[in-house]
Amino acid sequence: MIAYILRRLGATFIVMAVVALFVFSLLFLTPGDPAAVIAGDIATDDDIKNIRAKLGLDEPFLVQFGGWVWRLLHGDLGTSIFTNLPVTTLIGQRVQPTVSLTLCTLIVAVLIAVPLGVIAAARAGTWVDRFVMGFSVLGFSVPVFVLAYVLIIVFSVQLEWLPVQGYRPLKEGMWPWLSHLILPSIALGTVYMALIARITRAAMLDVLSQDYIRTANAKGLAPRAVLTRHALKNAGVPIITVIGIGIALLISGAIVTETVFAIPGIGRLTVDAILRRDYPIIQGVILLFSGVYVLINLLVDLSYRLFDPRIRY
Amino acid sequence: MKLASASPRALALALALTASCASAQQNVLKFIPSADLRILDPIATTAYITQNHGYLVYDTLFATDAKFQVQPQMVEKWELSPDKLTYTFTLRDRLKFHDGQPVRSADCIASLERWAKRDPLGQKLAEATESWSAVNDKTFRLKLKKPFPLTLDALGKLASNVPFIMPERIAKTDAFQNITDATGSGPFKFVKEEWVPGNKVVYVKNTDYVPRKDAPSWAAGGKVVKVDRVEWIYIPDSATAAAALNAGEVDWWEQLPPDLIPMLRKNKDVRVETRDPLGSIGIMRFNFLQPPFNNQKMREALLYVVNQHDYVLAIAGDEKNGRPCYSFFTCGTPLSSEVGAEPLKGKRDFDRAKKLIQESGYKGEKIVILSATDLPIVHSQSLITADLLRKLGLNAELQAGDWGTLTTRRTSKEPVEKGGWSIFHSYAVGPQLISPASSPIRASGENAWFGWPTDKKLEELREAWFNASNPAAAKKAADAVQLQAFKFVPYIPTAQFIIPTAYRSNLSGVIVAPMIFLWNVEKK
Amino acid sequence: MTTAVLTAPKSASPTWQWFRDAFRRHPTAIVGGMVLAAMVLIALLAPWLGTVDPQALSPIQRLKPPSSEHWFGTDMLGRDVYSRVIYGSRISLTVGIAVAAFSIAVGLAIGLVTGFIRWLDAIVMRVMDGLMSIPSVLLAIALMALTKASVGNVILAITIAEVPRVVRLVRSLVLSLREQPYVEAAIAAGTNLPLILLRHILPNTLAPLLVQGTYICASAMIIEAILSFIGAGTPPNVPSWGNIMAEARSLFQIAGYLIFFPGLFLSLTVLAVNLLGDGMRDALDPRLARRM
Rounded to 5 degrees, what are φ and ψ at C192? Predict the structure, then answer.
């Protein structure tokens, strides 16, 4: 077990190193002189020279990369080109909304999608199944921003049930916080739910055809007990895997959702940084998102044993 | 979604928190600015958003009122010597910076000297200036080499760059380097800790500010702050912004696309007003350092095909909110005329334009049009121009980012292959173009606005206007400037249009002006 | 792709025969295929479908609701939305199909080679793992930030984001295939590597890759729309479905048709491609398909 965790950590480390190398290279793949980009609006040639020297841009690539990684390990992601503020500060200002949004979406999506998938599998071939499958294909086919606008029109503008935009920190109260997250979570969560419901259904169908389920049924166990206690538990590995992999969808979706709902999270920061070619922020955000993604999937891998005791590390 | 009801304890906690928030309820004005505040230095950039920020944080010696009259603001009294060469200014009592220090003559002089290095009108004033000197802490003197009739107009300049007064320690910063400390003596204080670039800027009332006694009129008069706190919430998506205003989540939206006016008018809790009766002017600007628009014939060719009606419709939605303006000076102001405007005003003539392009020796060089998709006024002009160039058979490429990117890219003097540009669009508020003083008509090369045109004749004619001694002579000189401008084509005016602003009807005392002044506003 | 599948001659290989039977059992896939075929036809025949120049401006005609003259209305610059949507199918389908084709081709090449060369495998797979840990939309927009907006660059950026997943799939297929007796026999007989890859491995990866290709195609079209929405996609004057929607988004409350029609076309096409992919997948996995 411990050996396995160590091996996995090692692999994770390598993955992050590759991401870091890629992210660092971004600035060097940029057309033009990065120093000139950073110097910006009203730079003189001397300014640009100073910046080159300060950033060590005249050094060989590997030396620069080393320096960058060194600073990275000390928690220094560099300074934003446009605002001159440290990237860590900018990201720090915006962590809470994004974490709230994605967590809220994650919980709700799992709570809805897994039962849907189970029901669809249990009633395979009926209208319930068709409905769930239809929803899941449709969920993949509607761009998140179109869905977001429809939600705003219906629930905020017409019905006036929920706020249109913005974010309230939790310290301002549970309802202000939650009410600002409901619509974004639905918009963001639809694709994710579609994915989870599909995989859950497929995994359940697979398990339900196994002999031990037939045995359980034959010995007269209540169908519900068979479904949850036996089948769902055994279908757990693919489901939890897709929940982990689907985090990528959440991250991608958050970028769009935060833009539409004007939520001051990391997604909005990303869009702004992309539009302004603010590379230090882009680098920082990619590193952060990838790190979170890799970490979550590491945890997912480690959790397999909970579902399937046969798995030995 | 029923997380709240799932846990009674959480709910109780939530209620307690809401209650504690309510008791500390402040009067907060929530305002959607037209752009994201990125640069804090109103001298180093001409960006309107930074200028508006400046008006909150800083104060000015003089200020322009709604009748375009210059009125004293920080200045208690001033006098001009009979030879018109010496101005003496005395500051009002109890003027204090946000750090508690009093405003002294030295602060004013340092601020004005820094401003005069960047602002076009300021540069003119600097040319005429012999020296600035402090008489004592509250009185200072300006000595001129030659009379400069526009001195007070310069010191009370309404639009970018505004001669804001900063503490001397900050004003000593190189004029080409951005200041990052927003300490001023204005009616609001900037809260740097709460500044989230790309999202939020926070100002609080400066309780030490001593407003003038007279009624407010644009930048002039008493700046009485009637809210505790102002929050600028940047919402780049105008659909979201409109919905937020409709729902009452924000109080005031600085600048909205005219297409949304009818929708907002339906809401009886929202008021839509025109920000500026003079309107703003759309601008098509060329790069004079790179082919093909370093060639006068190419610019002239476009003059014959730009159809202002198209630009008006694209920017303003319908002709109710805009009109063509065939003048380099804001239509509806004294200097505007249609002298020499025939190429822009007459029948649109594609054959003539194509002939001019041929004569210019255009060889299919790539033309890069910069655009900003987050500013509809800029983006719609760019799309029309791109279509125009396509119709002329020119090799044009539209490169779009956001306005921040455009303002960075337009500083490049390189060829288009190396990240340069050929055309960008912008707009200027009406007051900025009422005279040749601070208009992008200036053709002084490196010193001129982005695009860097050089034309000696135009500069000589501008000089003549500065030296004109009476209104009639000034008018004549301005006509001569315009005549030459229609030949040289420093830029092409594309439309005159009004920019609507919208606010909730529980606001009163809103000062409707070409720029945003957030004092005098009351929120019920 | 679809048309090729549907019109394959009767004497085709058993694989095709199998596909045809499978399709008979999957009506939704048939519908998906037909919708997709219709979209491809629309894209090819765009100039002859009563369209006008999709870029022609006419500000005087701006924001006209749908009418007999302008079937889908006009946008804020008076461009004909019907023409833009019809021509837009070219951009969106090109992006979808090109990304699918390129990422399959590149992924296949990398996957085949690394599946057989152990030392290369270790390096390449670490790089792929790294790229895969960056969410694909994020990776694509980061790449778009490096270059200027163009359809080619959008295709390239999304392809780079999709390749690692294809490589993973191909590699897993190769690894299981090389344990097959006939492959082991070929290796033992000293057949050279390119020949083994070409004759024994490649044909067996095609069917799953075709399924994967449809999903990539669908996701590429959605990513294109997202990139355009964020402002990091195709140039704003190019009428892709994403761009039409992105440009009109401030007007979605007063001119909803500007979002509705391109949105409908995009969703229909993506839906069709997804249904087709589902049908093919079920056909390939008869154990699951039996229960449908």
Answer: -75, 160
* 8 Å CB contact of A32 and B419: yes
* Per-residue pLDDT reduced to its tens digit, A164-196: 778 888 888 888 888 899 999 999 999 899 989
Helix (H) or strand (E) holding B240: helix B238-246
Question: Which helix (H) or strand (E) element contains residue B77?
Answer: strand B75-80
B199, B251, B266, B410: best mutation site toward chain A, by most A Cβ within 10 Å? B199
State whether residue C141 sits within 8 Å of chain A by CB. yes
> Which of the residues A37, A41, A85, A93 would you substitute to probe the B interface, choosing the one with the greatest number of B C-beta atoms within 10 Å?
A41
Q: In chain C, which residues have their Cβ closer than 8 Å to the Cβ of B384?
A: 57, 59, 77
For B375-402, letters b (16+ CB in 10 Å) and e give: bbbbbbbbbbbbbbbbebebebbbbbbb
Amino acid sitting at position C214 = T
Cβ–Cβ below 8 Å for A172 and B244: no
Average pLDDT, chain B: 89
pTM above threshold 0.80? yes
Please state the length of chain C. 292
Q: What is the C-alpha to C-alpha distance for residues B110 and A291, in angstroms, rounded to an integer?
A: 49
ipTM value > 0.85: no
Cα dihedral sign, A125-A129-A133-A138: positive
In chain C, residues with a C-beta closer than 8 Å to the C-beta of A270 are 138, 141
Is the Cβ of B12 closer than 8 Å to some Cβ of chain A?
A: no
The count of other CB atoms within 10 Å of the CB of residue C69 is: 11
The contacts of residue C203 (CB under 8 Å, 6+ apart) are none
Q: Which chains touch B (3 or more CB pairs under 8 A)?
A: A, C
Helix A247-260 vs helix A266-276: crossing angle, to nearest 10: 70
For A173, the closest of B14, B244, B247 (CB atoms) is B14
- Asked if B237 lies within 8 A of A108 by C-beta distance, the reply is no
For residues B314 and B316, give the distance between their C-alpha atoms in angstroms, rounded to a whole number: 6
Beta carbons of A290 and C133 less than 8 Å apart: yes
**Chain B interface includes A51 (CB < 8 A):** no
The C-alpha of C241 sits at a distance from chain B's nearest C-alpha, in angstroms, of 16
Strand partners for B400: B371
Q: CA A186, CA A181: separation in Å to the nearest integer?
A: 9
Closest to B398 measured CA to CA, from B413, B388, B412, B408: B388
- Cα–Cα distance for residue pair A216/A221, rounded to 1 Å: 6
Asked if A143 contacts C222 with a C-beta cutoff of 8 angstroms, the reply is: yes
Beta-carbon separation of A289 and C138 below 8 A: yes
How distant is the Cα of B172 from the closest Cα of chain A, in angstroms?
18
In the sheet that holds B200-205, the strands lie side by side as B188-190, B200-205, B229-233, B28-32, B252-253, B500-504, B270-274
Question: What are the pLDDT digits (tens) for B381-433?
Answer: 999 999 999 999 999 999 887 777 787 788 888 898 888 899 999 999 888 89
| DSSP E strand boundaries for B289-422 | 322-323, 367-372, 396-401
The parts of chain A modelled with pLDDT lower than 50 are: 41-42
If contacts are CB pairs under 8 Å, which of residues 157-176 in chain A contact chain C? 157
Q: Give the count of Cβ contacts less than 8 A between chain A and C.
A: 141
> What pLDDT shows up at residue B215?
94
Is B49 strand, coil or helix?
A: helix
A279-307 helix and A247-260 helix, angle to the nearest 10 degrees? 140
Residue of B260, B262, B400 lying closest to C236 (CB–CB): B400
Which segments of B208-333 are extended strands (E)? 229-233, 252-253, 270-274, 280-286, 322-323
Asked if A138 reaches chain C (Cβ–Cβ under 8 Å), the answer is: yes
Reading the block at residue B11, the tokens are: 């709910």
